[in-house]
Amino acid sequence: MRFCTKSQLDRRAARRAVGGAFAGIWLKAATPEYDLVGGGITIREDRTRDAAGRRAVAFTSGHIAYVQTLLVRAADAGRFAGYRGLSPVVRIAAMPGTTGEERLLQLTGYIGPDGALRAGSRVHLASGAVREAEDGERLVITAASSSPAVEGRRRLEPPDDTVELPQVVYFQEEGPLLDALRTPHEPIQRYSWLTLNDEALIEVWTRDGLLTSVLLAYVRAFGVDLVVDLTADASYRDLFG
What we know:
Layout: E1 3-5, H1 6-15, E2 36-38, E3 91-94, H2 99-108, E4 122-125, E5 130-132, E6 153-157, E7 167-170, H3 174-181, H4 199-206, H5 210-222, H6 234-237
Parallel strand pairs: 1-2, 3-7
Antiparallel strand pairs: 4-5, 4-6, 6-7
């Protein structure tokens, strides 16, 4: 049996040159290549069905409960205290096909309960084309599926006559999404790299005790008195001498 996490799926997909997008990852378990799929997937009944509406996969019991909120720069905490008061000059980053995207679009008023996109909204696609939602054509965006016409979306703009909706800028991975938010001098801890899967990176970090030297220099520079090992994987600990 093969088990695939989201980060592993990203790497496998990248090697096949088809991208590692999150949207639809849950249906990979219905394909011959994977038996199980895991990685922060919210349990939803509509995610168990394929494009034809047939039940294709099943979720196991849930193991975590969570809430969703906007992540903002500390300096902008007062400016963005909620979803009200946003405008087209504000840009919000999101990942397509996630519950975070759907909830954001619902709260800001881009979509209704059925996921139908507000008339006049413009969807910029990776191909360079722009699709505009019209009253006679339903463009749908939900966390389970989206209209084929909005697949590959890169940016969402509000209707011209709307002043309370922000722009939505789409990223395919969490790392670049966070990098877009931070200022040039802010460090970000990323957990998407698994050492056991990249021998070249392991060699770089362990060569001449590089990572150990960096850690010791940090300890000395900031007068750290206590270092607690909370790593869950031995491969991370092995990076240090």
